[in-house]
Write a structure and sequence with these properties.
Elements: H1 5-25, E1 31-37, E2 40-42, E3 47-54, E4 70-84, E5 87-100, E6 104-108, E7 112-115, E8 118-121, E9 125-130, E10 146-152, E11 156-158, E12 162-171, E13 174-179, E14 187-202, E15 205-218, E16 222-226, E17 230-239, H2 247-254, E18 261-270, E19 274-279, E20 290-304, E21 307-309, E22 314-324, E23 340-342, E24 346-351, E25 358-369, E26 376-377, E27 380-386, E28 391-397, E29 400-401, E30 403-405, H3 450-455, H4 457-478, H5 480-504, H6 508-527, H7 537-543, H8 550-568, H9 574-592
Helix pairs in contact: 1-2, 5-6, 5-9, 6-8, 6-9, 8-9
Length: 596
């Protein structure tokens, strides 16, 4: 069987991508997603169902489950390497054409496939088929490419009650997601946790839903505002490929095997603010032992030791376990403990969930008995308010018997004074000393010593150094473009040195891959774009309209095309590699001097 040039390049591209596929599949997690585009068609039209295998590959093409009234035909496959927030993943798409024999609403059930001994499944998808002359209904939900919602667990809470909040981001294709801190005046904010992503439908559109759950605790009464939540991200908008004029390469890049190109569109999303009504804790039936704990708790106490001499310490350990604002839980009052010296307690919180609202708060209280009349440690009472039942609850621990004995080494009732006479006996007045005794020279004060004066400059110098460092850090924080330029400059310098070594070693693949990466870093820094999004197309789309020198554009085009030729039709030799190094260096230097 003969292969023409186009077929040969396609086969070569498949082989290269397959190598990348197996390398990525060994590292990342596996997943299966079913996407239907469009999800509403007219009778006689077709919809495309794509089974997208992320970082995995089935051994055979799976058959779609039979659905009465629907017919499906396998339409080929495509593979794409995506980079999202620095994470690389390989996505294999198996495409099917779906047609209907009658109008109606059809549900394609979940599809399960065995991949390397592991079952991966997709979510069900729904196809609406309209009559030939029937008008498509309006979408039931928003058609925006991304949405942001703020959803509180409830809108009426009590003072001190923990309120969970969900910030939900709905998106179809986005990256570089940054969620800003949630404004919550009148609340103290707790920890946050990221929940697993889910595929959901809003109207006629399918989104991936990313959820961040956090908690707040109200610190004052009334109607308080939470939010709005804000999220900054880059939407990935598909763009058409430009033709190169070379039929062989145009056929290659038009092949669905190589996926689609995207441009990044910055977007800031804002949710609606939520009003939370904060109620006061009931004053009726509030127990005397209540110290502000709100939630649901259990309570235990231990004492050690229980047999001590008078003046020896006893450690009281109290554990409060449950769900609520653990930081607001206080030790039961010991004001009624007579004949004890009470020291300030210590506390420690150990949480058992990601949000920090479930766990145990442990108190250690040291008390010292001051009387032989002590027979027990008094009973303890711990009270809390339960928002679920809207009532107070009091937990108690019974008194603990202790034995207090006299101290074995205590002072006697009669003590001797310095002259040996009993306490209280009169003593003679001692006369003034007549002779001074041995004298010694007093050293000069520290203020007159040079080393002490020099030592005073150390804090000043340290403060000046810290101030200089802080100003530099503030300057860099206000100038992220400067930070990136410095970092890219170092990367280019190291890359050019590595490029010469690759040329000497005649390692053509690594040589051209390094050129491509250096061009991405240099152009990305100048255009303020992510390096991963830089392709040859930016030369004509971004640089040419800004009046960049045509010679520089031609040199950059030549380097990009050389990289593409090496990837898909390798044939570089050692002399050719060595001659390219000065061209690459001069091109990168000219790119770095662009004023855009």
């Amino acid at each position: 069987m003969r292969l023409n040039s186009t077929s040969f390049v396609r086969v070569l591209g498949v082989a290269l991508a397959a190598g990348l596929w197996f390398a990525a599949a060994a590292v990342f997690a596996e997943g299966l997603t079913a996407r239907l585009d469009p999800d509403t068609i007219h009778l006689g039209e077709s919809a495309q169902l794509a089974l997208q295998f992320e970082d995995c590959q089935p051994r055979t093409v799976p058959a779609l489950p039979p659905v009465p009234g629907l017919n499906s035909t396998y339409a080929g496959q495509g593979t794409a390497l995506t980079i999202d927030n620095g994470r690389q993943s390989m996505v294999l798409s198996l495409n099917y054409l779906v047609t209907a024999s009658q109008p109606g609403v059809f549900t394609i059930p979940a599809i399960s496939v065995n991949v390397n001994g592991k079952i991966v499944s997709s979510a069900p998808v729904t196809l609406r088929v309209l009559k030939a002359n029937e008008q498509a209904p309006a979408a039931a939900g928003p058609g925006e490419p991304a949405l942001l919602k703020l959803i509180p667990a409830k809108t009426t809470i009590y003072l001190g009650e923990v309120l969970p909040l969900d910030v939900q981001l709905y998106y179809a294709n986005a990256q570089d997601v940054q969620l800003d801190p949630l404004p919550a005046d009148g609340f103290t904010s707790g920890k946050s946790a990221t929940l697993p992503q889910q595929q959901v439908r809003v109207g006629n559109r399918v989104y991936l839903r990313a959820t961040v759950r956090t908690t707040v605790v109200a610190t004052r009464l009334g109607d308080l505002k939470v939010g709005p939540a804000e999220c900054r991200l880059n939407l990935r908008i598909p763009i058409a490929r430009q033709r190169t004029g070379n039929p062989m390469f145009d056929d290659l890049f038009d092949d669905p095997f190589f996926g689609r190109r995207y441009q990044l569109q910055p977007r800031t999303l804002t949710s609606d603010a939520q009003t939370i009504h904060v109620l006061p804790l009931p004053a009726e039936n509030a127990p005397a032992s209540f110290a502000g704990a709100v939630g649901s708790f259990t309570f235990s106490a231990t004492v050690s030791p229980t047999n001590v001499a008078i003046g020896e310490p006893i450690t009281l350990t109290v554990r409060v376990t449950g769900q609520g604002a653990l930081d607001n839980v206080a030790l039961p009052s010991l004001d009624q403990w007579h004949n004890f010296k009470v020291y300030p307690p210590t506390s420690q919180v150990e949480t058992t969930d990601q949000l920090g609202v479930e766990g145990t708060k442990t108190f250690q209280q040291v008390v010292v008995p001051e009387s032989l009349d002590v027979r027990e440690l008094p009973a303890l009472a711990f009270s809390y308010f339960d928002p679920a039942t809207r009532s107070y609850r009091t937990l108690t621990q019974p008194a603990v018997p202790v034995v207090v004995r006299p101290s074995a080494g205590g002072p006697s009732l009669m003590t001797a004074n310095a002259s040996g006479a009993p306490a209280g006996a009169p003593t003679d007045i001692v006369g003034a000393k007549v002779r001074l005794g041995t004298l010694s020279m007093i050293a000069p004060p520290l203020i007159q010593r040079p080393w002490f004066l020099a030592l005073q400059a150390v804090p000043v110098l340290a403060w000046l150094g810290a101030l200089t460092w802080r100003k530099r850090q503030d300057h860099l924080a206000r100038n992220p473009q400067l930070v990136r330029r410095q970092l890219v400059s170092k990367q280019l310098k190291r890359g050019l040195a590595e490029l010469a070594r690759r040329a000497d070693a005649n390692d053509a693949d690594a040589f051209f891959a390094l050129i491509f990466r250096l061009l991405q870093e240099g152009l990305g820094e100048r255009l303020s774009l992510p390096a991963a999004s830089i392709t040859e197309a930016v030369l004509d789309e971004q640089l040419q309209p800004r009046g960049v020198d045509a010679a520089l554009l031609a040199a950059a085009h030549e380097l990009f095309q050389a990289c593409n030729q090496q990837r898909y039709a390798p044939g570089g030799t050692r002399p050719n590699l060595a001659t390219l190094v000065p061209q690459v260096e001069s091109t990168l230097l000219a790119i770095g001097q662009l004023k855009l």
